[in-house]
Amino acid sequence: MSLDLHPARADEARRIWPVAKRARLFGSVAEFDAFRTEGPWRLQVSDRGECAVLERWREHLGIVAMRGAWCSAERMPAFVDRLMQVARDQGMDTLLSPLVAEEVACVYEAAGMRLFEDIVVLRRVSGRRAARRTPLPDGVRIRSAIPADLGPLYALDEMCFDEFWRYDASRLARHFVEDRLMVAEESGEVIGYTLATVIGSSATLGRLAVVPDARGRGVGACLLAEALEYLERTGAATVSLCTQRDNAVSRALYAAAGLRELPGRLCFLVRDASDG
C-alpha cells in the first residue's frame, strides 16, 4: 500500500489548524502559520486526510520528530514509510514517534518502529497542597533568565542530559523568547533552571535542571516550587511534566511537590534508516 504525502497548501493548513490546536501543539494560529512558513516540509498531508506535524528533534542529531500524527492503524506502515522518506529528503536518518500510550505503541511497531524511551507523566491540579517550600541555600538566588544566560544554559544542558534530551542552542533561544525561563544563580554562575509553558488553562514544566556539583542542597526543590507557584498564579488548572521512568530521583522530587503520576505507560518509538 502506498501513501502520498505532500507539504500542506494554505487551504490544507487551515483545515489542520483546529486539530493541532486541540492537541496543544501550538499556542496560537500565528505560531502555527510561522512554523509552516519557516519549513513547509514540516506539515505533511495526504489527499485522504492523513497528516503529520514534523520538526527536527535536535540540531545535533539527525532525527525528525512527529510532534503530531493522524493516520488510521491500517495505513500507518505506509504513512511511516513516507515520513522516513521525508526525513531522508531533509538529510536525516531517524524518525521519532509522538509520545504515545502503551496501547497505541503496537500500531507504530507494526509500521517498523521500535520502543526507545519509557516516559512517566505527572500532573498537579490547581489548589492541591504541596510540600513546604525549602529555603534557598545561602548565596543562591532565583531570577528571570536574560540573553547572556543562553550560553551558560547550553553548557548546563550538556552536563545534565544525554545527547537525545539536551537542547541545542537554537531551541534554547526559542524557549527564551516564547516561554518562561528562570535560573538559579550562585556567585554569578548559573547552576540550574526551569522552563515553563502555559497554553490556555494547561501548563507544562518542560525542564528542571541543576548542575551535578550543586545537587543535594535543595536547589532543584526551590526551582520547582517557584515554577509551580508562578503557574498557580497564572490560573492554570493543571501543571504537567514528563520524566523518564527510570529517573527515580526526579520522580521522588516531583511527588514531594504534589505532582501525581498518571496511570499507564507512555513511550517514544524510533525507526532508523538501517531498520528498513
Plain-language structure description:
The chain is of the alpha+beta class. The chain has two domains: 91 residues, no CATH class; 139 residues, 3-Layer(aba) Sandwich (Aminopeptidase), CATH 3.40.630. 33% of the residues lie in helices and 30% in strands. It is built from eight helices and 14 strands. Strands 1, 2, 3, 4, 5, 6, 7, 8, 9, 10, 11, 12, 13 and 14 form a 14-stranded mixed sheet that branches. Helix 7 links the parallel strand 11 and strand 12. Helix 1 crosses helix 2 and helix 5 packs across helix 6. The protein is globular and about 65 Å long. The chain starts with 5 loop residues before the first strand and ends with a strand. The model has no long low-confidence stretch (mean pLDDT 92).
